[in-house]
Design goal:
The chain is an alpha+beta fold. Helices cover 16% and strands 48% of the residues. The mean pLDDT is 89.
């Protein structure tokens, strides 16, 4: 079993993440929690969120 780190973000502004053309996940400013790596990359690049230390570890089966 391997472990991977799940990014944890704190959003500074509202952000809509579109993982596919048919879905949107909305994050409100001030929300803090675990997100997918793709969401973390997009939100940090857009300047609407920052990484929070103490990311969650998830075990792969």
């Amino acid at each position: 079993m391997t472990e991977r780190t799940v990014p944890r973000l704190k959003f500074k502004k509202d952000f809509d993440f579109k993982p596919s053309s048919q879905s949107t996940v909305g994050y409100k400013a001030g929300w803090e929690g675990p997100v997918t790596q793709a969401c973390a990359d997009a939100a940090v690049k857009a300047g609407v969120a920052e990484l929070v230390t103490g990311s969650t570890k998830k075990a792969d089966a």
